[in-house]
Amino acid sequence: MRNFQFSIFNFQTERKKGFGLVEIVVAIGIISVSLFALLQTEIAAIKLLRGEKENLEAILLAEESLEAVRSLRDESWASNIANVSDGTSYYPIVENGKWKLSAGTSSAINGKYQRSVVFQPVTRNASDQIVAGGILDPDTKKIVATVAWGNGNTKILTAYITNFLTSISPATEEKTFFFENGATDGDLSNFPSDNSGNGDPTQSFTTSTATTTMTRADLSIKKVGTNLSDLYLEVRVNPTGQILGTSTILTGSAISTSTLSWVSFRFPDFVTLVPNTNYTLRLRSIPSSTDAWSGSAGPIHWGYQQTASSPYAGGSARRYVGRLSNPDDTGQLLDQYDFSFRIFTLQ
Amino acid sequence: MNIFQKKESQRGTTILEIVVYTALFGIIAIIISNFLIQIVGAYNISRAEREVLSNGRLLLETVTKSLAESEEIYTPTSAFNKDLGQISLITKTSVQPEHTTAFIDFWVDNGRLWMRKEGASPTPLSASSVRVGKFRLERLSQGLGRDAVRLTLQVNFAQQKFSSTITLNATTALRGNY
After folding, report:
1. A72 with B142: Cβ contact below 8 A
2. pTM of the model
3. Among A141, A140, A124, residue whose Cα is nearest residue A132
4. What does the domain layout of chain A look like in residue ranges?
5. Residue ranges of chain A with pLDDT lower than 50?
6. Are residues A32 and B32, on separate chains, in Cβ contact within 8 Å?
7. Which residue blocks in chain A are alpha helix, DSSP H?
8. ipTM score here?
9. CA-based angle B85:B88:B93, to the nearest 5?
10. Which of the ends of chain A has fewer CB neighbours closer than 10 A, N or C?
11. Is the previous residue joined to B122 through a cis bond, with omega within 30 degrees of 0?
12. What is the rounded CA–CA span in Å between residue A218 and residue A216?
């Protein structure tokens, strides 16, 4: 700096006059270039980190595809895996509380990722190793999960699944108590009610002479509104009585809309049912349909049958149970109607 | 000093040069400080991205690994289908002496994801630089005893000025370490 000041204020000779400015310009040039380089480094770091973030999101979606296919394998090889077409594109989707495969490529997940799963046949050689061009093994499939986003970015994961679960015999469940004639597709109970606090629909059933363990209940339902609340099912001793079991929650947006279909409400904590007793299935929503202006939205159609007397001898249907935040309100008895249901018990 | 020298020709030039010098210095100072501001800004953005990425990955790994090795979900203290949910797992890994199973809980409190293993005190899993915006759990049942949990995790950077967010989806079947 001494030299610098000296140059500026000393105009004795021509040489020193010009030198000060050149010095400054050069110094500034060096500083600017190095700062520019630093800035570029930071910008490159941001780009890399954002790319890495997308990679992570994409790879997790691909892993989820593989996990969905494994879940379908766990459920049933024969009905979920054996019947898919090799080489065709599928995508996993949650419907009615479980995974299923739909044909084609998914719509954009999180606004940008599209995923698909392709099954390929597997061939083995004489020593059972997986090779190309060997003998077809119908009990093994190769899965290729692809996630695509942006301008041609893709992540591809590959895995093999085998049909090993059929050699283990796990616990099974059977349909035990049921009423399946309720095929009328109509709105009987205004559930979940929009803002009016109309309460819940119920259907009761009677057990047989044996003690049974309930694992699941299927209801024949269909989504009508586009913005359906999440649903779950309760088993109670009577419509407003003690809760014996609560099912898993089904996400409203994942309920199918086309026709009445059997939707499973699973009870992870099994419910023990004693012989010759009347129990009530009470369909609930989150937020609760019993409270006015709770934000519950629907409706759904629960398939029913109407006859001059109650069509199902073992129980009866009710609606408006617990309406207007009154937990003791048993609602309205529908003595000419019954809702469709299937109760599954452990064998 | 030269400024006070009497020569006519030198006096005028000196003042002009000071003006030019000051102007140049001002312009340069603006350019350089602008560069510095941009560098600090870019550094903060990259820090936000890095924090969100590393926290998101850690949280997701921890929760999904715990889910995969657990035996079952303890329903009474689990909250599904909520944006800030919580989950309790019954696991056979790292159990207390004279016990066959242990509990692990995950929940969100005040923007941080917490974990508590049975017999230990609660530990925050996420750093204070990020907020967990969504910890949504959905329980899927593919069949009898085929439980799976679908997790949607959203992590945001805590400072509003440098926003960064990551949304991660994962489905984990409870397989009890097989």
Report:
1. yes
2. 0.83
3. A124
4. 58-167, 173-346
5. 1-15
6. yes
7. 2-9, 14-75
8. 0.84
9. 140
10. N
11. no
12. 7
